[in-house]
Amino acid sequence: MNRKFKSCFITGATGSAGSYLAEYIIKKDKKIKIYGTYRSKGYLNYLRKNYKKIKLYKIDLNNFLRLKKVLNKTKPDVIFHFASKVDVRKSFFYPIKFIQNNNLITINLLETVRQLKLKSLIVVCGTSEVYGNVSKKDIPIKENQIMKPASPYAASKAFQDLISQVYFNSFNLNIIITRMFSYTNSRRTNLFQSSFANQIAKIEKGKLKKLKHGNLNSIRTVVDSEDAMSAYWSVAKKGRIGEIYNIGGNKSISVKQYLNELIKLSNKKIKTEKDKKLFRPQDVTLQIPNVNKFKKHTKWSPKIKFKESLKKLLEDFRSQT
């Protein structure tokens, strides 16, 4: 199976993942039409400057009628649903905002596709956060692992995941759900890898004295952003309708080890300090996926080595600082 698409629609296209994916698809397929929605600017100017062929619509996806109008006009072959409020720690402070927004925009998207009777493939871009804290006996995590979200953000993503399953089973929408584990992302500074790399780059330039961190004991599996985008594209091209796929890398590492590996790449002495403000009320401590089904169905595998990915991440922040 290798689906061909003439048009692609990305919700949250100016966010970190949405903008990465738009770039990736353009490099892979010069002919495809790309549409995207945005609410906050994010990487809007960057995309407009570098990729003029992307058609971007300013839409709050909470506005059902506006979304319906745009989807009726574009009728895309494939939709990647990234739009969400995304910040695990912040969701503990604003649970209502996170849950109301993330739940409503997703059901608006699915219901729009249903009402318009579109045949679009919808890739619901979910997260491993839906699993919450998983005991060692259930590691590596399989897709049938029970969801036990540990934050309001994760609960909202669990709803997105579950309501998508309902729309597939009850309304025959063409849906594939992904649950992405950690990947490097230099377009967000509120993830552990990017926060560390960002602070190291600032210390090197004399803009910061100490690197502050939260919980270092979590164990994560990490993959490079480029491999993560190739996985999203692979799932759209080759994934099976109605399936749920874990996506993640081969490298499992503690947050502390990850920090130490980044520090080794620095030309300065990096002093670190624990910051209580960076700890979450409840943290997810063990995130190692079983990705056998995804690899079997799509033949995807990560290409970028761990050390190379670390260097890329740090260089990105050095160039931005």
Q: What would you say this structure looks like, in words?
A:
- The chain has 321 residues and is of the alpha/beta class.
- The chain has two domains: 7-184 and 222-249 and 289-297, NAD(P)-binding Rossmann-like Domain (Rossmann fold, 3-Layer(aba) Sandwich), CATH 3.40.50; 192-218 and 252-286 and 311-320, UDP-galactose 4-epimerase, domain 1.
- Helices cover 42% and strands 17% of the residues.
- The protein has a seven-stranded parallel β-sheet, with helices on both faces. A three-stranded mixed β-sheet has the order 10-8-12.
- Helix 6 links the parallel strand 5 and strand 6 (174-180).
- The model has no long low-confidence stretch (mean pLDDT 97).
SSE layout:
Blueprint (H helix, E strand, L loop, with lengths): L6 E5 L4 H13 L4 E6 L5 H7 L4 E4 L5 H11 L3 E4 L6 H4 L3 H22 L4 E7 L24 H20 L2 E7 L11 H13 L5 E4 L5 E4 L2 H14 L5 E4 L3 E4 H10 L6 E4 L11 E2 L4 H7 L7 H15 L1
Parallel strand pairs: 1-2, 1-4, 2-3, 4-5, 5-6, 6-9, 7-11, 8-12
Antiparallel strand pairs: 8-10
Offer a quick outline of the entry:
Strand 5 (121-127), helix 6 (152-171) and strand 6 form a beta-alpha-beta unit. Helix content is 42%, strand content 17%. It contains eleven helices and twelve strands.
